[in-house]
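Reviewer 2 asked us to include a model.

Predict the structure of this chain.
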Amino acid sequence: MNVLAIETSCDETAAAVVADGRDVRSTVVWSQLADHQRYGGVVPELAARAHLTAIGPVVRDALSGADAEWDDIGAVAVTNRPGLSGALLVGVNAAKGIALARNLPLVGVHHIEGHIAANWLIDELQDYGEIAMPAVCLIVSGGHTDLIRMSAPGEYELLGTTLDDAAGEAFDKGARLLGLGYPGGPAIQHAAETGDPAAIPFPRAWLNDSFDFSFSGLKTALLRLVEPYRVEPVDTPEPVREPYAAHVPPTFRSDMPVADLAAGFQEAIVDVLVGKTMAAARACNARTVILAGGVAANARLRAAMETAVAEHDHSPRLISPRLTYCTDNAAMIGAAAHWAIQRGDIAGFDLDVFARESLTRKG
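Predicted model (structure tokens):
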């Protein structure tokens, strides 16, 4: 079955055609990054309006890229939770319209399940074959940092989640504090390349060895470290009146050790992510460790996880989607939709959106 999948949970308008939950026939992503950079983060209303403009052309491009006609599509899948409500509504309403007009089954997909399912996708650069269960999944994506035990596709147990800032949010806020711009993850990774992660000590929130995460204290520690270097601009320009306030980067003394601060900050996040994942893998006797989500594209996190898995007592297999499927995309939604269709989880036209919802489904 060919599934037309739509993803609009945040600031990427994406569509894809996926066959039988694995074969990526096409994937199209239209990014709004340039629209949000001047604000230092995603503006929800602007994101929703941009999705309205892009959704039609993106869906048409996905069909064209798959060399598919409407009669070739067997179902329509769409992210309906969690995410920005206005953004989700654009994708869900588009999917409903297509499903109604073409008399196709409609499938609502959990965004986090999509990130996990990205590891099942097959194209010319990725094919993991059979993935052994149980697996421990670390999903680090935007506002989500979740540690999940997966016993089979569709069967999940939430082991831990963020109690405040997620890792992606911490990277974005840390980059703002350092004046590095948005998005924060790539900016901090680039700045940290010439830094010494041990030069400046940063705290780690282990939370009494639980599987939950907290990065707000780390952000506060960085704020206190950069504050002595901050200087006020000599001339403060008259603010320009506009619907949304543009982000004004802070100004610092030239001797601020940006590279060392970025490296230490990044290492503190990576240490906790890897440490808790490995502890969960031991507790669950995991045969596979899955790393997924936008932050999974971070080179330091990938390298540290590879080292930790190699040193693990039972040597589980580490898998992570190639970078194209780490960040938000619709192919992963098509993969997760295949699991939903197999278990008979078809939505009605009353399908709603949910800004927040944990992935906790048991078979």
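The two ends are 24 Å apart (CA to CA). The mean pLDDT is 93. We have added this to the supplementary material.
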